[in-house]
Amino acid sequence: MKYISTRGNAPVLSFEDAMLTGLARDGGLYVPETIPKLSHSGIAAMAGLPYEEVAFRVIQPFVGNSFSDTELMEAITTAYAGFGHVARAPLVQLGPNHHLLELFHGPTLAFKDFAMQLIGQLFQISLGRRGEQVTIVGATSGDTGAAAIEAFRGLAAANIFILFPNGRVSEVQRRQMTTPTESNVHAIAMDGTFDTCQGMLKDMFNDFKFRDGVKLAGVNSINWARVLTQVVYYFSSATALGAPHRKVSFTVPTGNFGDIFAGYIAKRMGLPIDRLVIATNRNDILHRAIRTGRYDMDTVFPTITPSMDIQVSSNFERALFDAYDRDGSVIAQLMGEMKQGGFGISQGALEVLRNHFDSGSSVEGETSATIKAIFETTGEVLCPHSAVGVKVGHNNLGSSPMITLATAHPAKFPDAVEAATGLLPVLPRWLADLFDRPERLTEMPNNLQKMKSLICERIAP
Ligand SMILES: *Cc1c(COP(=O)(O)O)cnc(C)c1O
């Protein structure tokens, strides 16, 4: 299996190299050259299997020769062993035709654990085998950073730097990043928004001298391996509700377009998905793009759903690449126009996108009202991100069962949940003393040179 860049101008890589690299050298994102198809009977056979077994069947065709079957199965087994629920991604019912896929039973209580825990295992195998040392740098709106630090803390072969927007993440998210005591963990509080952090990350990757000098590796949702691990729960949940014998729909709270893009990959692999609904908060660039055909940046408004406070949605580039018939030069040109603020999507490409994706958005009042209503009618306590999904999912109910992805545990966002329900959600046992642990972080201005110096200093032997 080979991986190519969405901008058509970077080396073709194996799964392992694409995973270790993250962002392609032409600024694009790696995608598989072809999407493997699973047969109807192969998908039917997944119903009722343990999550790990479904994961192996979905992921293996994309891995090629990078990892042996034994290595992959062991990595998957170790990755999910620490989850707080034996089903890993359990389904609960919210209404007659509406189901919630709980993706928050991992160690840091957000769906990002599904990807990070497995990537941590795969990095460890690769780096050990190569005898290499890498510098992982990630940008986060909160949950990616916590999940990445949890997966890489204490790993001898990697230093990990996580850039988060100072004051714009929840206290639980911040403490998950600043309380690990391992010396390879570096939590960086940046002046600015998530887009500032992500921009800084891209600038570091585009500085090849720096990139090669510190052996930069990326674990943001632009990393193909992350998207791939998220394809699994589309299969496990859909087959639990009768796929492939009947179609199901999904609604996905979206920021960087990674989680919903995984659903699109599941569909391309042969999972009969009826509709894939993009759910955004007030920062609704994706909803506007699908509705109007203009992909235009706006300012980022802080909301009670900080993990979705994003205007530049990186993984959307992968969807555009397919919508423009995989023409890398067109994508490179559009992303150039993005630097000036936005671009119009061609009629043909827009039709392809609308064929695959519906969209909707939920503003603050609606999100809070949804948390309250779902609590009162079902007893289920939603985090605000999941509530954005449930609100939009509810508006898009049809004949197929709707599965809305619950992306984080309510206790990660206690203020918003308490305001809506009057109930303070409690952290699980293993995080009970989080507020007593000492914090360690470095504050940084939005200055590329200073950031690079800091990284060089910290990784010096
Ligand atoms: C990251 C995150 C999202 C957005 O996911 P994308 O893959 O970036 O679209 C939504 N909700 C929560 C809780 C998250 O942590």
Write up this protein:
The structure is a single chain. This protein is α/β, with parallel strands linked by helices and 461 residues long. The chain is globular and about 60 Å long. The model has no long low-confidence stretch (mean pLDDT 95). The chain has 19 helices and 15 strands. The protein has a domain at 91-109 and 225-421: Rossmann fold. Helix 4 (69-81) packs across helix 5 (112-130), helix 10 packs across helix 11 (258-268) and helix 13 packs across helix 15 (347-356). Strand 9, helix 11 (258-268) and strand 10 form a beta-alpha-beta unit. It binds pyridoxal-5'-phosphate. Pyridoxal-5'-phosphate is lined by residues 110, 112, 143, 221, 253-259, 307-308, 385, 407-408.
Structural class: alpha/beta
Arithmetic mean pLDDT? 95
Tell me about the largest β-sheet. 6 strands, mixed
Assign a percent range to the helix content: 40-55%
The CATH class of the domain at 91-109 and 225-421 is identified as: Alpha Beta
Q: Beta-strand percentage?
A: 15-25%
Distance between the termini: 37 Å
Question: What characteristic shape results from the CA principal axes?
Answer: globular
Can you count the beta strands?
A: 15
In the CATH scheme, what's the topology name of the domain at 91-109 and 225-421? Rossmann fold
Rg (CA only): 20 Å
Please give a quick description of this structure:
The protein is an alpha/beta fold and 461 residues long. It has helices at 15-21, 40-44, 51-63, 69-81, 112-130, 143-152, 171-178, 194-206, 208-213, 224-240, 258-268, 285-292, 316-323, 328-339, 347-356, 364-378, 384-395, 414-421, 448-459, and strands at residues 3-5, 30-32, 91-95, 98-102, 134-139, 158-165, 185-190, 216-218, 248-253, 273-280, 294-296, 342-344, 357-361, 402-406, 442-444.
